[in-house]
Amino acid sequence: MQLRKITVDNFKSLVGFELDLAKFTCLIGLNGAGKSTVLQFIDFLAQLVRGDIEQWLRDRQWKASELLCKLRPTKRIINFSAILVDDDESEIVWTGAFHPPYGRLTLETVRAPTVALQVESGKFTITGDEPFNPISERIAFTYQGSILSQLQPKVLPGALKRLREFFLETESLDMLSPERLRQRTRTADGSLGRGGRQLSAFVDELGLARRKQLSTMLKKAYRQFSGLYSKSLRSGWKELLATESFRSGILKTDARHLNDGMLRFIAVLAELASEHAFVLFDEIENGINPEVVELVLDTLVNADQQILVTTHSPMILNYLLDEVAKRGVMYVYKNKLGRTQALPFFEIPSLAEKLKVMGPGEAFVDTNLLQLDKEIAQRNGGGA
C-alpha cells in the first residue's frame, strides 16, 4: 500500500494544498516554502491514527491552535483527504475535519470504494463487505485524533485495517538531532522516537540478522567500519556501539562519541531495516559526507518502504534517474497569498527542456528559484 495523494486546507501554510506522491518523492524549494510543513502534516495524519495528539504537540513544543493558518484567523478547522492505493490499485480515501480545541476529528469518512466508516453528529457507522455485520453506535467515549485509534482491529473491515496499519507504520524523522541519537534508552517499541532518541534500543530490537545487514551497508560507506552493536546496561538501558578495524587494532566507540554524520546514516539505515511502510526524512543530506550521498540515495530509492525526503542539495537530484526525478521531484513554493503550493519540478516547461540535455541536479543548479515563480504564475494562467 502507498499514500498516493494528500489534500489539506488550513494546516499552517498548507491552504488549498495538494500533493501527488510516488514511491520515492523528493521535495525541493527555497527556505520557508513549506517543505518541512508537508512532512509535519503527514506525521500529523499518523498521530491522528495513533491517538496521541497531545503528546505529539508537546514533543514539538506546539499548541493545538498553532496548527491553524495564521493568515486565515476566522478559519478554525483543518480539513484533509488522503488517498491510499493497494497493490491492486484499488483506492482507499480518508477525509476528515480536525477541530484543535477538541483534539480530534469531529467529521471523518473512509471510502473503499463505498463508505466503510462515517463519523458525524456524535455517531460512528462502520460497514463492510459480506459477511461483515454493520456497526452503528453513538460515541460514548472520549478520544484524540481519529476514532480508528480507539476501535479494536477485530471490528474493522479489511480496508479500515489496512489504512490504520499503514499510518501506524508511518515514521517521520524530521526532527533528527545528534544529541538525541546519542542517548541511551531502555525500549524503542518499534520506533526511533522523536528526533531519534530511541536509536540504541531500536537497533537492539532489530535483531542480529538485520544488524548484520545494517553493518554491511555501513562498511560500504566507511572502510574501517567493522560492526554495530547494542550493549545492555543496568536496569535495562541500551547503549549503541560501533567498531572500526585498523592495523593497530580494533577501536570500539559508543554513540556518545560517534560523529554526527555517521549517527544520521545509522539512523537512516536502521529505519530502512525496519518494517515501517512509509518513512519521512527532512534534509536528508545534513551532516553526511558527499562521498556517501550516492549510497544513501540508492538505498532510499530502492527501499521496500515508500519514501519522502526534502533536500536543498542538487547533488541529491543528480543521483536520481531521469524517470525517478520526473515522477518524484516536487517543487514546493509559496504563492502571493503566502500559501504553500507544489507541482512536479520537471513538468515546469523550462525544466522539462533542461532535462533533455542535463542531469536532474544540473538542471536544478542551472535554475534561479527566485525567478521561477514568474514562470509558474504564467503556467497557472497569471496567478501564483
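The record above closes out task 2.4. Task 2.5 opens with a second protein, given below.
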Amino acid sequence: MTERAYTLLLHGIDTLQCAYYLRQDRREGFDFGQLLQSRESLRQLGTREGEALTLGGLPLLLHAHGTSSGYPFLLTGEEFRIECGEFNSPSFFVTFGSEALWRESALLLHEKFLQWARGVGFTPTKPERVSRVDFSFDYHLPVMDFELKGFVSGANKTSLHLENDCIQTFTIGQGDIVLRVYDKVAEIEQQSDKVWFFLLWGQDRDVWRIEWQVRKAVLREFGIVTVEDLRKCEGDLLRYLCAEHTTLRVPNGDGNGSRWPLHPLWQDVQARVGELVHLGVCRFDGKTAALEERLAQYAKSVYGYLKATAAVACVQQRKPLISEREALAQLQQRMWELHDPLHWRVEVEKRIAEVERGAW
C-alpha cells in the first residue's frame, strides 16, 4: 500500500474538559436554591428524563442526580455538560460537546461559556484550568495493514479489541496518556450514533481514528493550564505524542523495534503534526506549572486535615468552634513531636530525587 492510500479527512479536538473558578456576584437567571428545589422534585417523581430549563438564554436539561465527582447539579445541553455547585471549588466543571467542538472550535466555545456565565451573574476569580483534551486524526483507510506489534511505545499496557474476529480497536497506554486507533465507522454504528461525522468526512465507510486522550498531569508538563495555553502549545504536545511516546512501525528482522521503519500512516501523521506552530520551549516551562499544580493539591489535602483537627479539638474541649490558627497550632505541636532532623533530611532528599525524575 502506498502513502496515497492514507487520506486525512479531519483532525482537531474531540473532547475538552475545563474547571472554572467563578463567583456569583448577582443572580440573573441562575439560582442554586431554585435548582435544588427542581432537582428534589425530579427525585420525588422518580423521573430519569430531567427537567428542561432555560438559563441565561441557554437551553439546558437539569438531571435528577449530581455527579460522581461531587457536584450536586448536572446540566446538559447541545454545547456544554456543566457540573456545578454553589460551595464547590472549582464551582463549575465543563465538558464541551464533541459536535460543538468540531463546529466552533475549543477557543470559541470557551469564550461562549464565559460569556454565558457572566450573563447569569458569575465572575471568574482566576483563570480556567484544562484537565483533559482528546486530539483526533480521522483517516480514510480502505485496508488496515498494521498490527498491535507495530506500535512501539513507552506505555506499559496495550490491548486489542476484536468484533466478529475483525480488529476494531488498538489501545496503547492508560491513565494520563491513552492512544486509541480504531474503526470510527463501527464505533458510530455500535455506540455513539454520531452520524454527522459522515457529512464532515464526505463518506460513511473505511474511516479509522487516531486519538490521544491526555489528562492534567501531562498537560501541565507542557505548560498547558488555560485554553490559551492549549492553543499555543498543542503542537509541541502532539509532536511528543506521535514521535516520542508512541510510533507505528513496520516490523522487520531487527530485534529493536525502535529501529523498524515508520509505517507510512505514521509518517503522514507526523507530517500533519509538523505543520502546527512549534514553540520548542513548552516542555521545559511546563515543569514549573506541574510543580505548582502538585503544591496546590498538597495544600488542599493539608487544609482538609486542618478542618478535621479543628473538629476533633472542638469535641475534646467542648467548644462550638476554634479558629484556623488554633487548629494549626495544635497540628504543629503534634508534628513537632514526630519530627526527627536526621529522618527529615533523608526523606526530603529522597523525595527531591523523585520529583526531579518525575516519579511523584
